[in-house]
Amino acid sequence: MSQSLSSSRRCFSLLILILTIVKTYSSSCSSSSTSFHCPPFNSSPPFPFSTSPGCGHPHFQIQCSSPRATISIKNLTFSLLHYSSLSSSLTLSPQLDSNQNNCSSLRFSSSSPNRFIDLTGSPFRVSDSSCSRLSLLRPCSPLTLPNCSRCPQDCKLLKNPGRILHGCESTHGSLSEQGCQGDLLSFLQDFFTRFGFEVEWDESQDPYFAKCKDCRVKNGVCGFNSTHPRQDFICFSSQRETTTVNNHVAVLCLIFALTCLLLAISVAVAIFRSRRASFLSSVNEEDPAALFLRRHRSAALLPPVFTFEELESATNKFDPKRKIGDGGFGSVYLGQLADGQLLAVKFLHHHHGATAADTEHCKAFSMKSFCNEILILSSINHPNLVKLHGYCSDPRGLLLVHDYVTNGTLADHLHGRKSAMTWRIRLDIALQTALAMEYLHFSITPPVVHRDITSSNIFVEKDMRIKVGDFGLSRLLVFSESTVNSATSSDYVCTGPQGTPGYLDPDYHRSFRLTEKSDVYSYGVVLMELMTGMKAVDQRREKRDMALAELFVSKLQMGLLDQVVDPLIASDDDGGVAAVAELAFRCVAVDKDDRPDAKEIVGELRRIKSRTRVGEDDVAKC
């Protein structure tokens, strides 16, 4: 609470400081609009000129003096002889340095050792007409140079008068004697004093002018932050608005201080109540995930419960170096328990930066996926399915503990590095995956639809045995009475389509009707990956071939299967590749009733595998 009060005091002090600064600058710039005489201006100088620091344009600050106002550009001081708003030009006369040092008096008041006029880096440039006049000047012959070691600048000007203005230094060829000057340096001094030279600026290239135009539309006064390195533009309040601010600033400060005080007290009370409620909730209420799981499954059938501290210690505080994968719902870390056992720990994603409504939705969705995976994995036991070893439901995160499969995913072997898998190994992986799918569809009551059978969710052991994992999207096919009594040829559950692009059943996506045949479609795409080595979706392919299922079916129908079959297994083709290709084609049929079920797939793959083994034995005998 004391911290909140301290924050309110700092907030109040900051407001007073800001209002004071705004008031000071606004009054200063507003007062500059008072009419007075400042030659060559008949009244107060218009924008971009200003006589008040921090107002107008930072390069157009002038000093009013008699008989002419002065302006400083790059440490050189000039008198303003004339100003033209139509052509956006100034006629300037440089002020001469009184310290001549026995040289010509054509020296300019400057703190820089370079006594020539260089406007580079400012918004001004010397007009072409002034440069043209200088280009015609030359001393009359014979040229008598002064002592160049003492007055080097004089010698340079006599040889090329255009050097006096940077940008007019072009050397001209021989000119006629007409118009030459016997005392060129004195002529230049008199010329610059009486007539000066013209400079121009381009309003369209300067952001100050565009910003000031917008500021004036709002009845503001144009200025800049004179203490800022880049001198940022500021639009000050007009005189009328400033007067209103002055009249109400005390009232605003008082209201603001009281508001900050009340807000600090309210926040302190709210924090105290929230922490107290959270503490009481954690003491008196049981974890919602545990309650949900016990309502749907007896405690004896549920996997062990880990504490958050146990899994945090096992993963070295979820060290990024221990991250072994990222799924759609969480990051997976390698964990080592106290007994030395290696396990995979999946930490369901947190959703930072979301709105309060989105955060609650994401929490509910993560909890649903979390409980769903626990219920399904705790009821299955198959050598080709990932085993669930436990879970942790904690306010700090939801975690699942699985088997650690040491050899990466099938996607890694097919796409992430050079694959050395023979056709025999690929066919064996296809059969093991089909056996896992058959178990889910026919050996469990109610059946389980995985909904995300992909090469990234098939994990490979060192001996090339596989385990299917990631059951976050899985659904139990619990049919309603109306569905069971319907006359349709297959049972289904109505649910929103979810899955991975490229593997998602288009019939399910269109009709929202989920059946086991949706897994069969995804499995068919995995078969195509095994045969081609290609990704299920690849944006580098042409648009019509981006989805592997469409590319594969097209080539198969045209009799061009050899164009997509992985060259690594083409030499092993004894009829088995063609037979598996035909099976994959049936699995991705548009009408799900035309697709084989998991039992048919297992039977067909076993027949293909037996024929492949017989063929290999015949080759060995030869």
Explained architecture:
This protein has helices at 2-31, 128-135, 152-159, 184-194, 207-217, 239-284, 288-296, 308-314, 356-377, 410-416, 423-442, 481-484, 506-511, 516-532, 548-557, 567-570, 576-587, 598-621, and strands spanning 62-63, 70-73, 76-84, 89-94, 125-126, 197-200, 221-224, 233-236, 323-326, 330-336, 342-348, 388-394, 397-403, 448-449, 458-460, 466-468, 475-476, 493-494, 513-514. The model is unreliable at 351-359 and 481-489 (pLDDT under 50). With 622 residues, the protein is of the alpha+beta class. The relative contact order is 0.06. Helix 7 (288-296) packs parallel to helix 9, helix 11 runs antiparallel to helix 14 (516-532) and helix 17 (576-587) runs antiparallel to helix 18. The strands form six sheets. Strands 1-2-3-4-6-5 form a six-stranded antiparallel β-sheet. Strands 9-10-11-13-12 form a five-stranded antiparallel β-sheet, sandwiched between helices. It has three domains: 25-239, no CATH class; 286-404, Phosphorylase Kinase, domain 1 (2-Layer Sandwich); 407-622, Transferase(Phosphotransferase) domain 1 (Transferase(Phosphotransferase), domain 1, Orthogonal Bundle), CATH 1.10.510. Residues 318-608 form the Protein kinase domain.
- List segments where confidence is low: pLDDT < 50 over at least 5 consecutive residues: 351-359, 481-489
Mean pLDDT: 80
Major β-sheet, in short? 6 strands, antiparallel
State the helicity in percent bands: 40-55%
* Lateral arrangement of strands in the main beta sheet: 1-2-3-4-6-5
- Please provide the count of β strands: 19
- Give the CA-based shape: elongated
CATH architecture of the largest domain: Orthogonal Bundle
Class by alpha and beta content:
alpha+beta
Provide the CATH topology of the largest domain: Transferase(Phosphotransferase), domain 1
What is the distance, rounded to the nearest whole angstrom, between the alpha carbons of the first and last residues?
A: 90 Å
Range of strand content = 5-15%
CATH class wording of the largest domain: Mainly Alpha
Helical segment count? 18
What name goes with the CATH superfamily of the largest domain? Answer: Transferase(Phosphotransferase) domain 1
Gyration radius from CA atoms, angstroms: 42 Å
Multimeric status of the protein: single chain
Number of domains: 3
